[in-house]
Design a protein that fits this description.
CATH superfamily of the largest domain: ATP-grasp fold, B domain
Distance between the termini: 18 Å
Largest sheet: 7 strands, antiparallel
CATH topology of the largest domain: D-amino Acid Aminotransferase, Chain A, domain 1
Strand order of the largest sheet: 3-2-1-7-4-5-6
Strand content: 15-25%
Number of helices: 12
Number of domains: 2
CATH class of the largest domain: Alpha Beta
Radius of gyration: 21 Å
Shape: globular
Length: 361
């Protein structure tokens, strides 16, 4: 039986790697400029990974990122290595889905400002003010809702996120009744008030809540900020995720935005937002406060050494927690090599850990 499970896990890992490679090759074909790696660069990449993880890696990820950003580095993390090996050694997959449920963020992080919650649905059960209610009560309490966001509580990448208003039990979502909206989302969703963001954040794109994405790494009692990027929606859109059409740009340690942002493949080296704001040097408000908050919160996540955090900035400059992610994508186009100068050390550290990914494909 154990041998059977081992073989199945190997096959699933191989299938996952093939799928990731196909996805990236498709993105590579969309790039406006394609830069081949030199023989010297190929040797450097393979030497680096043989030294750190003990084997060679496919070069398509380095070729893609070099072509897209114009910056070469042997330290780029191949997505296949990250997805099948690293994240399972950094985080406990068995605990991941429950902890990442957006419906329990208030209980996980009670001391941080979060958007007002109108309603939760957890495993088909409704909750208001964290107290269970029936369907009739849920409908009655949500007959009138102004400027809210409804989203699935267990999904990522902005899937299913909609701006919603309800008047006399009728929503703005194709004119559906509130009961029909509940049926549409089925279960595991949350309705929260839309964040009123700081004027400096709204200026980047007023239709979306533009967020700071922070990747943090925990080593014992120390939390290191790996990188920060700003995520900005496109004109008229509600969400800022790059996978949903938004753009991302690096935030430097002084809280200023770098020169270029990146969107979907083929949308490269964006210097201005759709509203005409020049990115380079633009100051992100309350940046230091967000960093301090993340360092504090990450210590409350014992099963996860790597975490991604999304924060908005409120009208008065207060950091507002939006969500966290235990299985995030890496923003290597916007930031560069995900773990920067710490790549070699972190790889050597985590490859001594058990990979919890094998049973969760």
């Amino acid at each position: 039986m154990e041998l059977f499970r081992f073989i199945i896990a190997k096959l699933k890992k191989w299938a996952s790697l093939q799928s990731l490679a196909r996805e990236l090759r498709c993105k590579y074909r969309k790039l406006l400029v394609k830069r081949p790696l030199t023989c010297k660069q190929k040797r450097e990449i393979q030497a680096f990974y043989r030294k750190t993880i003990g084997h060679r890696v496919p070069l398509i990820w380095h070729k893609f990122l070099y072509s897209r950003t114009t910056v070469y580095s042997e330290k780029y993390i191949p997505v296949g290595v990250y997805r099948t090996e690293m994240i399972g050694r950094l985080n406990n997959f068995a605990m991941m889905e429950a902890y990442a449920d957006k419906n329990i963020s208030e209980q996980l992080f009670p001391d941080v400002i979060q958007p007002k919650t109108f309603l939760k649905n957890i495993h088909g059960h409704f909750y208001i003010d964290n107290k269970t209610v029936g369907m009739d009560e849920a409908l009655a309490q949500c007959q009138e809702i102004e400027d809210a966001i409804i989203k699935p509580s267990l999904s990522t990448r902005g899937n299913g996120v909609r701006r919603m208003e309800v008047h006399h039990g009728i929503s703005n979502l194709e004119g559906r009744s509130l009961a029909d909206v509940f049926r549409l989302y089925e279960q595991d969703f949350i309705i929260q008030a839309r964040v009123h963001q700081h004027p400096a954040m709204s200026a980047l794109n007023p239709s979306s809540v533009n967020t700071i994405r922070i990747l943090s790494y925990r080593r014992d009692m120390d939390v290191k900020i790996i990188y920060t990027v700003i995520r900005i929606g496109r004109e008229g859109t509600v969400i800022d995720n790059e996978s949903a059409g938004g753009i991302s740009a690096r935030i430097d340690p002084d809280g200023r935005i770098a020169k270029y942002a990146f969107g979907s493949a083929g949308t490269d080296l964006v210097e201005k937002t759709d509203c005409g704001i020049t990115l380079e040097g633009y100051t992100v408000p309350s940046y230091d406060r967000v960093i301090d908050t993340v360092k504090r919160l990450h210590l409350d996540l014992p099963h996860f050494d790597l975490a991604a955090w999304d924060f908005a900035i409120g009208e008065n400059g207060e950091p507002i927690f939006i969500e966290w992610n235990a299985n995030p994508d890496l923003s290597q186009s916007a930031f560069g090599p995900a773990f920067g100068d710490d790549t070699e050390q972190i790889l050597k550290e985590i490859y001594t850990h058990k990979n919890t990914r094998h049973n969760y494909w």
